[in-house]
Design brief:
Radius of gyration: 20 Å
Keywords: Membrane, Transmembrane, Transmembrane helix
Strand content: under 5%
Number of helices: 2
Largest sheet: none
Distance between the termini: 46 Å
Shape: flat
Order of helices and strands: HH
Structural class: mainly alpha
Length: about 70
């Protein structure tokens, strides 16, 4: 059996499009509230940063205090 297993090289382009779409939706919520487009993006990036920091702290505490 011969299977054609060619991978597409367009995955990087797809991820870029998803990131651009995510940033526009992040900015639109703040723009509707009257704060400005870029203010909304910075708020969402800051919130994502805090979420990552919280997850890292939880992971570290879990690894420190979990019984093996």
């Amino acid at each position: 059996m011969s299977e054609n297993k060619e991978k597409s090289n367009n995955t990087g382009c797809g991820y870029l499009v998803l990131i651009i779409i995510a940033f526009t939706f992040w900015g639109l919520s703040s723009m509707v509230n009257g704060k400005g487009f870029f203010h909304g993006i910075t708020e969402q990036i800051y919130a994502a940063f805090l979420l990552v920091v919280m997850v890292l702290f939880i992971y570290v505490f879990y690894k420190l205090f979990s019984k093996k």
